[in-house]
Amino acid sequence: MPVYEYYCPTCKDKFEVRRSISEMDDPAVCAGGHADTWRTLSMFTALVSRGEFGEYEGGSDFGSFEGGGCACGGSCSCGG
Ligand SMILES: [Zn+2]
Q1: Ligand 1 centroid – CA 40 distance (Å)
Q2: HEC states along 2-69?
Q3: Residue 32 Cα, ligand 1 centroid: separation in angstroms?
Q4: In this structure, is residue 54 part of a structural domain?
Q5: Is residue 10 in some structural domain?
Q6: Does residue 15 lie within any of the structural domains?
Q7: Sign of the C-alpha dihedral, residues 39, 43, 48, 51?
Q8: Can you give the residue range of the structural domain that contains 21?
Q9: Cα(17)–Cα(38) distance, rounded to whole angstroms?
Q10: 48 alpha carbon to ligand 1 midpoint, in Å?
Q11: Is residue 62 part of a domain?
Q12: Residue 18 near residue 52 (C-beta atoms within 8 A)
């Protein structure tokens, strides 16, 4: 049975609960008896979410190549 991590805002602390997948989103009672808790993001989910803000700006580097030449074939004043 998987272990899920939950956060208790009252205790300001995280705790782990071993439960079935079908119960993973149910509130868990912390060691202090508080039921007003929620499940924290797993490490896997955090990694996936980070991908949405990928470090690749994409395309910007390729864009610079467009100005690298002229397709005029030498008939214009581009010098190329
Ligand atoms: Zn608590």
Answers
A1: 14
A2: CEEEEEECCCCEEEEEECCHHHCCCCCCCCCCCCCCEECCCHHHHHHHHHCCCCCCCCHHHHHHHHHC
A3: 5
A4: no
A5: yes
A6: yes
A7: positive
A8: 1-41
A9: 11
A10: 28
A11: no
A12: no
Provide the 10 A C-beta neighbour count for residue 38: 11
More confident residue, 17 or 53: 17
Rounded distance from Cα 17 to ligand 1 centre (Å)? 13
- Please, which pLDDT band fits residue 43 given cuts at 50, 70 and 90? low
**Averaged pLDDT for residues 35-53:** 65
Do the Cβ atoms of 2 and 18 come closer than 8 Å? yes
Q: Length of the chain in residues, anyone? A: 80
Residue 28: is it exposed, middle or buried by C-beta count within 10 angstroms (0-12/13-18/19+)? buried
How many domains does one find in the chain?
A: 1
What's this model's pTM, rounded to 2 decimal places?
0.50
Q: Residue 63 C-alpha to ligand 1 middle, in angstroms? A: 53
